[in-house]
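Researcher: I've been going back and forth with a colleague about how Phosphoribosylformylglycinamidine synthase subunit PurS might be arranged in three dimensions. Neither of us has a model we trust, so I'd like an independent prediction. The organism is Nitrospina gracilis, in case that matters for your notes. Sequence below.
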Amino acid sequence: MLAKIHVTLKQGVLDPQGKAVHHALNDLGYNEVRDVHLGRYMEIELEGVEASEAEARVRDMCEKLLANTVIESYRFTLEPQN
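Model: Here is an independent structure prediction for Phosphoribosylformylglycinamidine synthase subunit PurS. You can compare it with whatever you and your colleague have in mind.
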């Protein structure tokens, strides 16, 4: 099973990297860009777990290590692997 995880800052949390990218894009002439939010993307391969258990395990991984839930949100999908 493949877990695809996206971690982003919560609304209202300062995103200095996003602001830097936003300004750089504007400087390059992309004036239509109004805001940029950066985050992290991870793929984790899981083995030997059923789909129902995999969901709980990935959520636990996110809560304990992969996301700082005070300032970050996360979402994930699970896909079967061949």
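Researcher: What would you highlight for our discussion?
Model: I'd start with this: Residues 2-79 form a domain with the Mth169; Chain: A , fold (CATH 3.30.1280.10). After that, consider the following. The helical segments are 16-27, 51-66.
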